[in-house]
Amino acid sequence: MACSKEKECQILEDMKEYYGKTIQNKDELMINNSTSTCDAPPCKLPRHIAGALELIHPDVKAKSYGCGMTVPELLEGTHVLDLGSGAGHDCFALAKLVGETGHVTGVDMTEEQLEFARRYIDYHQETFGYSKPNTDFVMAYIEKLGDAGLKDDTFDVIISNCVVNLSPDKRAVLKEAHRVLKPGGEMYFSDMYADQVVPDHIKQHKVLWGEGFAGALWWEDLVRITREVGFSTPRLVKASKINIKKSIQDLTGNVKYVAATYRLFKVPQNGNNMPVDVVYNGSVTGHDKVIALDKHNTFKVGSVVEVDPELSAIIQQSRFASAFTVVPSKTSDGEKTIPMNPFSGTRAA
Ligand SMILES: C[S@@+](CC[C@H](N)C(=O)[O-])C[C@H]1O[C@@H](n2cnc3c(N)ncnc32)[C@H](O)[C@@H]1O
């Protein structure tokens, strides 16, 4: 078991019941999770991603319970881990994008979800035209990946879609994610966040735990915990307000929620403090003219862009290194702040 305290164990057991037995498809969820493949209209996905999503079996699509899109760039040949893979929707989409030389491992604690996902491995292998399956599904608690044999420095990319909020121990989840990522690796994940620490009366409610409202982190706590376990400062990719049904709103009161996607990198936190100039070369699939690494940092091919020291470390030490040229900044006007608040400027989903 991934828990030591009785209350945490009870939350995990209730969650297994909820996702194993209570909820059978996404229409039964109480939140409007129409944000699962597109954060807000108009939705323009790169063609290779839209193509991969189209190939997912309809039964798997119907059981996709995510709250955001978890498809980072530059996945070819990578080894990906999905925390809380559910019915396997995101795993199969990424299995197409990593290609035959890549691999996707989904972990989940709910046997029913794992069994369901495993039934569709061969279907997707055949649909993608691969000679052997490149996906597997492993029973694991995301707080204790070591118990399932997941070793240090193993994965290039971790994704997770609306799962971290369900864990009673977020610090353990993020610490484990940091441990199993290779140096320079990335955790790219969508989740629900609150605009304040969620009050205790909400945390007592079983269904609110199942739907993510009780366990959602105050976004500032995410920033604190990720830094404490060794990740780079969270980079906000996108955020949209969650539409809450009236019956839920009566319970959550004045707490506001967003669905947000952040990316965290496993790069050393204290490096060179000087901003640098970078130039994007257009080599990332689906981004031959422009690429956005987060909501506030977009790079046009051939243009010189000044980035903060941490983003420069991320670019130089991650899988993005070959897509950028980096030179010391000639124009620097001093320190840059990193905008992380998912509530500033969010649109309704
Ligand atoms: C909201 S669903 C999301 C599933 C999938 N990521 C998707 O987008 O469809 C949450 C999933 O996380 C799993 N889960 C929740 N807490 C977990 C934990 N502590 N360890 C492992 N799996 C967990 C549940 O079993 C369920 O399959």
TrEMBL record:
Region named Disordered: 330-349
Gene Ontology biological-process annotations: arsonoacetate metabolic process; toxin metabolic process
Domain Methyltransferase: 76-229
GO cellular component, one term: cytosol
Domain of life: Eukaryota
Family membership: Belongs to the methyltransferase superfamily. Arsenite methyltransferase family.
Name of the featured protein: Arsenite methyltransferase
Gene source species: Branchiostoma lanceolatum
